Amino acid sequence: MPLYREQGVVLRTQKLGEADRIVTMLTLGRGLLRAAAKGVRRTSSKFGARLEPFMVADLQLYEGRTLDTITQASTLGSYGPRITEDYERYHAGSVMVETAERLSEGGPAPEQYRLLVGALRTLAQGRIAPDLVRDGYLLRAVSAAGWEPGFDDCVKCGAPGPHTHVSVQLGGVVCGDCRVPGTPQIDAEAVTLLSQLLRGDWDGAAEATVPARRQAAGIVAAYTQYHLERGLRSLGAR
């Protein structure tokens, strides 16, 4: 059976038999990949810790009829321990890996892979608030999938901003003439924050007030789930 190498970030794992696991990964070259890791639940396993959620690894695998098998794993990014030791980081990371899995269905997704690895690295470093890392990642991941929102000019008629009404269905801010009844209105600071998160302006985003962060988070969650066409389980799990 042919051997091959891949880089992958572990999204989730599940038990298989007495000592094995099925590892679901987002890989650089093959997109989503499910593979068996034999014996990793034994205390004597040499690479079990390298195949935990949020870890990034260089992998050697061999192809199987129904499921490939991981034979070697070396760590490229040891983000799991730092993320799982803090609940807020863990919750943000869980939302991110679930979103990555949803957005990467259907084939190779190298941009999604790089976005996720970079976001997990930032999350593990702990210098930026987890909710900001999460929301910045979600906006850029959805944008990379083809649904980039607009937070400057009206997304319907192009009227110059700033605007404070946000239409998830239309893809961003809308002016007073284009908004329909029921279109939510948020503070101007929250709109600015959304734009900063989309650009990756962490210095600017870090100065946002708590109310602005909450409003922006609500818009990001609604926008992401609208385009995924279903809810994110981890987003509601607190």
Total discrete domains: 2
Major sheet summary line: 5 strands, mixed, barrel
Mean pLDDT across all residues, rounded? 93
| CATH homolog superfamily of the largest domain | Recombination protein O, C-terminal domain
* CATH architecture tag of the largest domain: Up-down Bundle
What is the helix tally? Answer: 8
Number of DSSP strand runs: 7
Order of helices and strands: EEEEEHHHHEEHHHH
Coarse morphology: elongated
Query: What is the spatial order of strands in the main beta sheet?
Result: 1-2-3-5-4
Helix content: 25-40%
Structure description:
The strands form 2 sheets. A 5-stranded mixed barrel has the order 1-2-3-5-4. Strands 6-7 form a two-stranded antiparallel ribbon. The protein is built from 8 helices and 7 strands; from the N terminus they run βββββααααββαααα. With 238 residues, the chain is an alpha+beta fold. The protein folds into 2 domains: 3-78, Beta Barrel (OB fold (Dihydrolipoamide Acetyltransferase, E2P)); 82-236, de novo design (two linked rop proteins) (Up-down Bundle), CATH 1.20.1440.120. A hairpin with a 3-residue loop joins strand 2 (20-27) and strand 3 (31-37).
